[in-house]
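Students often ask why inverse folding is considered easier than folding. One informal answer: many sequences map to the same fold, so there is more than one right answer. In these notes we will look at a single instance of the problem. The structure comes first.
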């Protein structure tokens, strides 16, 4: 899954595809084409920064950022389009434009979100987050992070099923960096296979994250090696989808992992 941030303030690539207060559709489409050529199976298009401390934007602002890019990508590219959003309005509008997946850091908890996904036959990725982006990293606390994250995700997935969302359309994301300390993130990575034990496909996003900086001391633009290492570890421990900035390099790493028979099987 290639990351396509249409934001002015995302932690890694904010502003690159956002100019003069609006989406730079041609630049976004060019970047999307490149990621597909490099081997991306999915593109994740987001219009709201969810970095720690990020401020809120309106649904209309978010829609104005992502809708033109979803429409352009759907028109020109043969790839699954994901929308990184918690907004039911954005979900519905982008589904009509060609999106097939909702990647929601709030796990469809906003009123109307589950109905929007079900009504449009979308798939959904449900992510675990302790708190909200503005405050989530201030004092994250767990008694047993692996057990608590796993239990919450399964409970949330089952609730969505009860609301009509087909199990085959659900992915789970442990939410690395979302209300977790470095130690929490490492513990989740170490026991990732436990999160996949019930057969739910896992989406993992660790690309360029602060965990890498904390361990290696590298700045956000110098975390490729760390991102690749974590991607391979995640794949070996059960991840089915890797959400990344550096598609070509990650595809190479995955191909080598598969060739050596090291990927997890489910």
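Output (designed amino acids):
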């Amino acid at each position: 899954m290639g990351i396509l941030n249409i934001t002015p303030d995302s932690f890694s690539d904010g502003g690159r595809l956002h100019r003069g207060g609006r989406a730079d559709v041609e630049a976004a489409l060019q970047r999307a084409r490149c990621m597909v050529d490099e081997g991306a199976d999915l593109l994740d298009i987001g219009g709201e920064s969810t970095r720690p401390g990020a401020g809120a934007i309106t649904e209309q602002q978010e829609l104005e950022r992502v809708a033109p890019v979803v429409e352009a990508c759907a028109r020109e590219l043969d790839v699954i389009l994901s929308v990184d959003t918690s907004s039911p309005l954005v979900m519905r509008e982008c589904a009509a434009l060609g999106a097939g997946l909702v990647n929601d850091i709030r796990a469809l908890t906003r009123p109307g979100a589950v109905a929007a996904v079900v009504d449009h036959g979308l798939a959904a990725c449900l992510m675990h987050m302790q708190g909200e982006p503005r405050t989530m990293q201030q004092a994250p606390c767990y008694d047993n992070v692996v057990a608590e994250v796993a239990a919450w995700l399964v409970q949330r997935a089952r609730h969505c099923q009860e609301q009509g969302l087909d199990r085959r359309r659900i992915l789970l994301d442990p939410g690395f960096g979302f209300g977790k300390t470095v130690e929490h993130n490492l513990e989740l990575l170490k026991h990732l296979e436990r999160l996949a034990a019930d057969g739910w496909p896992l989406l993992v996003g660790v690309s360029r994250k602060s965990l890498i900086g904390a361990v290696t001391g590298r700045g956000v633009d110098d975390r490729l090696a760390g991102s690749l290492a974590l991607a391979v570890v995640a794949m070996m421990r059960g991840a089915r989808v890797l959400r990344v900035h550096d598609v070509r390099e990650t595809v190479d790493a995955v191909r080598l992992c598969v060739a050596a028979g090291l990927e997890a099987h489910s």
